[in-house]
Known about the structure:
By secondary structure, the protein is mostly helical. About 75% of the residues lie in helices and about 5% in strands. The chain has a 3-stranded antiparallel beta sheet with strand order 1-2-3, covered by helices on one side.
Amino acid sequence: MLKSAFHSFKKFYAGPMGFVVDVALFAIITYGFHELWWEFARVIKSYTVINVTADWLAEQVFHSSLWINRNILGLHVTTEYPNYMWFSNGGYVQVVESCSGLKQFYQILVLFVLFPGPWKHKLWFIPMSIVIMHGVNILRIVILSAVVLWRPDYWDFIHDWVLRPGFYVVIFGLWVVWVERFRSESLKVEGLEV
């Protein structure tokens, strides 16, 4: 009986309503990871390797966004330790460990390790997704720099309600690519119709 129920579920998952299972699984993994991260944040941050990695990533984001601000946008930026960018209007952006993107890297790792699909693609898709997320994070700091300089009254709104959720939009987009390209491939390997 259990075997036939499992087979029925696999047929449902391979059918046109399989996206419901995919969306539910995405939501459960994403929400579950988010809740567990903040529930155990104090424990997670008690590990030196986590703090050192987050600080190193924050420094990389800082230097990359500083380079873009100076060399591409042509902004006059002065710096101050640790990771402050000061602009001509007296505004500043500081890139701290919570700006490092480390949480999002782990979130991508957990999402795609747990989500169905072939491991031969997970081995390159996960690192590629992390690199994309790092680029998005650099872009986020550059956008915040422009906001601080030209529209500082919108900084809180842009930071909290546009760019922070933007991380999840990018993660969702990566997940859509994964589902559209690799979910169907893994179902074909299992001999189920898509």
